Amino acid sequence: MNSFVSCLPLEIMDPSPMEQDPELFHPTGDIIIQVENILFKVHTFLVVPRTQVLRDYLSTIENQPVESHEGSSITNPLHLSGVYVEEFRAFLDVIYDLDSILTQKKRDATYYLAVLRLSNMNLWEPGVDFAIQGINSLDPKELQPYAKIVLGVVHHQDTWVFDGVRRLFVSGPVIPQPDDKEIFKQNPSIDQCSIDWILRDGSTLLTNTITELIHHAPRFPNHDKAAWGTFNCDNHAKCVSAVEDKWKRIAKKLPLQFKAANGQWALSFEVVEHLEKFPFRSMDPRCRAQMFSILNHRAVGFYRSICCAICDKLMTLS
User: Fold this and answer.
1) Is 0.85 surpassed by the pTM of this model?
2) 3-state secondary structure of 257
3) Deepest of 22, 72, 75, 264, by most Cβ within 10 A of its Cβ?
4) Cα dist from 254 to 89, 163, 198, whole Å
5) CB within 8 A of 130, min separation 6: which ones?
């Protein structure tokens, strides 16, 4: 949804009664802006240089009488469409409190997203940078994974995309659909179908990786002491044989459990937890501990590599 200055009469655009914003209707302001049914009176020397849509509008009325200008009075405000009141408040808040850009005063995700959208819309780079830094400072859980992915692609922030992908797949290959699709409406340049296809490819890759891990016993050398360090046992060949024998049962039982769980096993930790439930009775405890340490690092490494691959593919959409 693009922001533009509407030329429709006010009674057609919005039948709601106009209200002055309690904090951003400045007595000394020289232009009145309407967003939804709220009026803002602001200073052109502060706001116009940071608002592309206002610059474009004012450049078209330079030779017209001032009293005929939209924005010259309460009865003839300049109407901004495609912008929400709370977004515009946040945007003006940053403009009027430029120290916040320097001090990085802590805000919530909604505030930073509003500033990011309007700053990007109005080509105000300091505002974009401020919002990006603010989002980076948030707890990752303050933004939904799909929002992190879409915004990361739009604003070329691969760390956001990676975090969104990692959180989507943290519980297993089956990923949830977005709870709120508003993020796609606000960023029409990003095709939801393209994102869905890439995520499905990632889901398939995760499923295949988990299947491979539980079907095939890990290969451990039975004589290379360097491979085991301080965990060497007295009869390592016996340990290797115990793993190979037990894995025959694992390869039959675990795939059925994985299927019964509808594929919802986390590669990074849950797969190894299921493997640890099987007793390897004739295996030296030191070897067993070393084996699961290796399997755990392997699973975490696979998970991170897959998330990185999905992230790289998503970033090609920008």
Assistant:
1) no
2) helix
3) 72
4) 55, 29, 27
5) 94, 100, 101, 104, 115, 119
CATH for 42: 3.30.710.10
- 3-state secondary structure at position 50: helix
Residue 215's closest CA among 245, 242, 243, 247?
Answer: 247
How large is the angle between the packed helices 285-315 and 192-215, nearest 10 degrees? 160
Is there a contact between 1 and 185 (Cβ–Cβ < 8 Å)?
Answer: yes
Q: What SS3 state is found at 19?
A: strand
Return the higher-pLDDT residue of 91 and 242.
91
Average the pLDDT over each of 8-22, 151-165, 168-182, 198-212 and give the range with the smallest value: 8-22
Taking CB atoms within 8 Å and a gap of at least 24, the contacts of 11-15 are 13/79, 13/81, 14/79
Nearest residue to 39 via CA among 106, 89, 107, 93 = 89
Average pLDDT over residues 248-277: 90
- Residue 78's domain spans which residues? 4-138
Q: How many separate helices (H) and strands (E) can be counted in the chain?
A: 14, 5
List residues bridging with 79 in a β-sheet.
Answer: 34
Is there a single domain that holds both residue 124 and residue 223? no
Residue 54's pLDDT is what?
87
Segment 59-94, tens digit of pLDDT? 887 666 666 678 888 999 999 988 999 999 999 999
Question: How many domains are there within the chain?
Answer: 2
Q: What is the pLDDT of residue 174?
A: 87
Question: Under a CB-based contact definition with an 8 Å cutoff, are residues 195 and 175 in contact?
Answer: no
pLDDT at 221: 58
